[in-house]
Design goal:
By secondary structure, the chain is α+β, with helices and mostly antiparallel strands. The protein has 2 domains: 143 residues, Endonuclease Chain A (Endonuclease, Chain A), CATH 3.30.870.10; 146 residues, no CATH class. It is built from 13 helices and 10 strands. Strand 4 and strand 5 form a beta hairpin. This is Phospholipase D family protein.
């Protein structure tokens, strides 16, 4: 067996295609994507590529959003993004290769020190293939050139930030770093998420990008869907357990818990709690009650 055995499997499969090719992998590098396009016969008119882009992963070099440019140049290919994608499937007409290999040099064996990967043949009719394809179709958004450019630009900004969070690739054992909101103005989040960060200072922008990296919201969402995703992430925070369970959270108690758990000063904890309150006020239906110990309460305030 050669070190590029997995690539030979993919190459031989794609060369047999007559009308349709599907390339599904979380991580796709542009050199291998171009090699795959070159193998596909000219008569194949439909090439669908499904992958995922996140700013930390692009910054880490495991994915290249520039495949959108190659797809447009090819003229037959379209790129879709599925944020929780982990499956790897490659299809020519009704025959699939399914397994562990991403469309990268190390996974396919096209570079030295290749990974040990597995791809096995399955038919399109296999129920697990159908299940995965259905889930991908329901949860994908277009990987446009504009979005690809935004991802690369934000990845470059993240690389310039020494305090940016490390990448935790889903499926590994490492747990993501503990996160507390940093951005004091949550209305900036969606603007920066969409690539609109003009007139935002570099230090403030770095904080927004760090928050977005920790939030790990998939790209291409409308503002309302983005807000729902952020709110769901907020409600996973231990500090908001009382709000979730009892419909209210005492700000003084939350501040004391932060001092005890994080070892921060009272002033740092106060600032963090105020930031959390600002996020909840922006993304959720809550209101502040400035009577006795300040509280955040679930629901709109009656006037």
């Amino acid at each position: 067996m050669t070190t590029d055995h997995v690539w030979r499997q993919i190459e031989q499969l794609l060369a047999t295609a007559t009308h349709r090719v599907i390339l599904i992998a979380p991580f796709i590098k542009k050199e291998v994507f171009q090699a795959a396009l070159d193998v596909i016969p000219a008569g194949v008119e439909q090439i669908t590529c499904v992958t995922r882009w996140s700013v930390p992963e692009v910054a880490a070099g495991v994915s290249d959003p520039e495949i959108a440019e190659l797809a447009e140049q090819d003229g037959r290919a379209s790129v879709m993004l599925c944020h929780n994608l982990h499956a790897k499937l490659y299809a020519a007409d009704d025959l699939y290769l399914v397994g562990s290999a991403n469309l990268t040099g190390k996974a396919t064996g096209r570079v030295p020190a290749a990974n040990i990967e597995l791809l096995v043949e399955l038919s399109a009719a296999h129920p697990e293939v159908q299940r995965v394809i259905t889930a991908i179709n329901a949860g994908s958004v277009p990987g446009t050139l504009e979005l690809a450019q935004q991802m690369r630009e934000q990845a470059n900004l993240m690389l310039a930030d020494e305090d940016s969070p490390r990448v935790v690739v889903p499926g590994q054992d490492e747990q993501p770093e503990r996160w507390l909101p940093e951005t004091r103005n949550p209305e900036r989040l969606y603007r920066v998420y969409n690539g609109h960060h003009q007139h935002i200072g570099s230090d403030v922008l770095a904080g927004v990008l760090r928050d977005l990296a920790h939030l790990d919201v998939g790209p291409g969402l409308a503002e309302q869907d983005f807000g729902r995703a952020v709110l769901a992430r907020l409600h996973t925070m231990p500090e908001l357990q009382a709000l979730t369970e009892a419909g209210r959270i005492n700000l003084a108690d939350a501040q004391a818990e932060l001092v005890a758990a994080e070892g921060c000063t009272g002033e740092q904890a106060k600032r963090t709690v105020e930031t959390i309150a600002a996020w909840l006020s922006y993304f959720d239906e809550v209101h502040l009650v400035p009577v006795g110990p300040w509280e955040i309460r679930q629901g709109k305030e009656l006037t």
